[in-house]
């Protein structure tokens, strides 16, 4: 198992060495995700490389793709409930852009979700069905986009080759529930106190996992090889996969203990050498030594995850560093100091660069000062010019709601929900918009049904069902709305029966 395997660590000092099932947490996923956009025209001038990717059909494995999606969606909801997920549309979409570039080199369909976990550990995980997540610490430790792309490509390869499903012969019959229970149990254990964590990890499912949820050495090598091909085809330097191996190897040398992951699946010099050798065999890709787009993502992530200080950011601002100026603006907004945020943002504007974060931050400053007219002027044109930009349009919708224009806000948000029904941020805006609408016979029902979606995708399935039952009860006078709510209620009740 390679360094990118999920190893969800108990942040409340749960001592894994007290349990024979410690590999439970180490192996709870397949692996990972991505970062910022990467555009290098040199890619189109590269010599063609011959790839050899095994074609794994949908019928391979005892857990078929439909069941894998059920697992992924179930775990997605539980991750939202149990883990400190960073909800930030701009950051999510930056990561998704690179993820999509690598995914386009595969035959995988749209993933279930891409999440950022607020954890300083260098880690990432994925779940069968296409749920990918990475820790903020991974982004904060990477030196460029290509290194994060290498992590993502390796983990995508595990999913495309369906390594988990192909090796789980003993899960026949009960595999779906067993796997979902194991994954969620590991997440719960990582958030619980020692006693609760121990209770969750004990049991027959955990014992089953301890024996089976591991990749073979051949599968790891296959993920290395195919992942490197994916990232190269997407325009990223294959050397960056080997580079980040070394970053992670050095990070463990500074610890006073060796994580269980490293004890059971060490990153050997042989593995690092093999990765470097493979990279040398591919045509060269020009590296972006001044990856300012990634620096913006990294420092913004450090602010969101509270892994930086005002002193660090001020030092960057003193050097007239554009990413540092944006990050300091975000930091001051986080502190609620709108005046200081405006000073930092004005410095960033002197670079004469039009960056979406500048628009988002300026709008937040105006909203924080209750200057609604200025906020609308700041965000409206940018959102209309870039209708595909979720972050800008969600901020526009938020501003419209504050300005008592909820119907227009709902129209904007609904476009994005049509393509991704799991978008918790979108459902929250829909709930706010419904609550801000003028009083009517259906207002309460709409508020409840949108609240139910927020609850459902946040992992509170039973509460969501109760909200929908209440919404259906008070919407009986509107046949169309009642039917819509009833249909969604039936869907939620069916998925609720898929118990962990």
How does this model look, in words?
InterPro entries: Mito/Outer_Membr_Metalloprot, Peptidase_M48, Protease_BepA, TPR-like_helical_dom_sf. It is found in: Periplasm. This is Putative beta-barrel assembly-enhancing protease. Its main location: periplasm. The active site is at 155, 224 (proton donor). With 500 residues, the protein is an all-alpha fold. It has a domain at 62-188 and 208-281. The chain has 25 helices and three strands. The protein has helices at 23-26, 65-82, 89-103, 136-141, 145-160, 163-166, 175-191, 194-201, 204-212, 217-233, 239-253, 260-264, 269-281, 292-304, 310-318, 322-335, 338-349, 356-368, 372-385, 390-402, 406-419, 424-436, 443-457, 461-474, 479-496, and strands spanning 113-117, 124-127, 131-135. The chain has a three-stranded mixed sheet, with helices on both faces. Helix 10 (217-233) runs parallel beside helix 13 and helix 18 (356-368) runs parallel beside helix 20. The longest helix is centred in the N-terminal third of the chain and has 18 residues, at 65-82. The chain is flat. The two termini are 26 Å apart. The model is unreliable at 1-48, 56-62, 169-174, 190-215 and 255-266 (pLDDT under 50).
Annotation, overall tally of beta strands: 3
Instruction: Write down the Rg.
Output: 23 Å
Q: Strand sequence of the main sheet, in spatial order?
A: 1-3-2
The percent range for strand residues is: under 5%
Largest sheet report: 3 strands, mixed
Mean pLDDT: 78
What share of residues is helical? Answer: 55-70%
- Please report the distance between the alpha carbons of the first and last residues: 26 Å
> In terms of per-residue confidence, which ranges show pLDDT below 50 for 5 or more consecutive residues?
1-48, 56-62, 169-174, 190-215, 255-266
The ordered string of helix (H) and strand (E) elements is HHHEEEHHHHHHHHHHHHHHHHHHHHHH
Which structural class do the helices and strands define?
mainly alpha
Please report the number of helical segments: 25
What would the principal axes of the Cα set say about the shape?
Answer: flat
């Amino acid at each position: 198992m390679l360094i990118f395997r999920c190893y969800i660590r108990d942040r409340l000092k749960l001592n894994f060495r007290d349990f024979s099932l410690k590999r439970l947490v180490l192996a709870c996923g397949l692996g990972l995700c991505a970062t910022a956009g990467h555009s290098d025209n040199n890619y189109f001038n590269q010599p063609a490389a011959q790839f050899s990717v095994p074609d794994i059909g949908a019928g391979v494995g005892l857990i078929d793709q439909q069941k894998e999606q059920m697992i992924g969606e179930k775990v997605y909801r539980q991750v939202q409930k149990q883990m400190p997920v960073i909800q930030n549309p701009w950051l999510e979409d930056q990561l998704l852009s690179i993820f999509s570039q690598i995914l386009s080199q595969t035959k995988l369909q749209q993933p279930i979700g891409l999440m950022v976990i607020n954890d300083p550990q260098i880690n990432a995980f994925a779940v069968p069905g296409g749920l990918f997540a990475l820790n903020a610490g991974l982004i904060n430790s990477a030196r460029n986009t290509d290194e994060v792309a290498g992590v993502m490509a390796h983990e995508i390869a595990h999913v495309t080759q369906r390594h988990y499903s192909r090796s789980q012969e003993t899960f026949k019959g009960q595999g779906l529930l067993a796997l979902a229970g194991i994954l969620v149990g590991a997440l719960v254990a990582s958030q619980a106190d020692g006693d609760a964590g121990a209770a969750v990890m004990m049991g027959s499912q955990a014992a089953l996992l301890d024996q089976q949820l591991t990749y073979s050495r051949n599968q790891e090598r296959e993920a290395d090889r195919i992942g490197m091909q994916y990232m190269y085809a997407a325009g990223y330097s294959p050397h960056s996969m080997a580079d980040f191996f070394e970053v992670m190897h050095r990070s463990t040398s500074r610890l006073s203990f060796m994580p269980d992951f490293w004890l059971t699946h060490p990153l050997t010099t042989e593995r690092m050498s093999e990765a470097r050798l493979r990279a040398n065999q591919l045509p060269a890709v020009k590296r972006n030594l001044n990856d300012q787009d990634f620096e913006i993502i990294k420092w913004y992530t450090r602010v969101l995850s509270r892994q930086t200080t005002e002193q660090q950011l001020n030092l960057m601002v003193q050097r007239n560093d554009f990413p540092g100026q944006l990050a300091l603006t975000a930091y001051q907004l986080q502190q609620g100091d709108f005046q200081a945020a405006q000073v930092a943002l004005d410095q960033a504007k002197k670079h004469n660069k039009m960056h979406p974060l500048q628009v988002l931050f300026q709008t937040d400053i105006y909203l924080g000062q209750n200057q609604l007219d200025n906020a609308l002027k700041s965000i409206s044109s940018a959102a209309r010019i870039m209708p595909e930009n979720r972050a800008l349009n969600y901020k526009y919708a938020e501003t419209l709601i504050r300005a008592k224009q909820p119907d227009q806000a709902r129209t904007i948000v609904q476009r994005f929900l049509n393509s991704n029904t799991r978008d918790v941020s979108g459902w929250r805006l829909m709930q706010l918009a419904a609550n801000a609408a003028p009083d009517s016979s259906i207002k309460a029902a709409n508020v409840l049904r949108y609240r139910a979606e927020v609850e459902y995708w946040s992992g509170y399935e039973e509460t969501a069902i109760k909200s929908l039952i209440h919404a259906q009860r008070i919407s009986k006078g509107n046949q169309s709305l009642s039917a819509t709510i009833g249909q969604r209620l039936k869907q939620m009740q069916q998925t609720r029966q898929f118990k962990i």
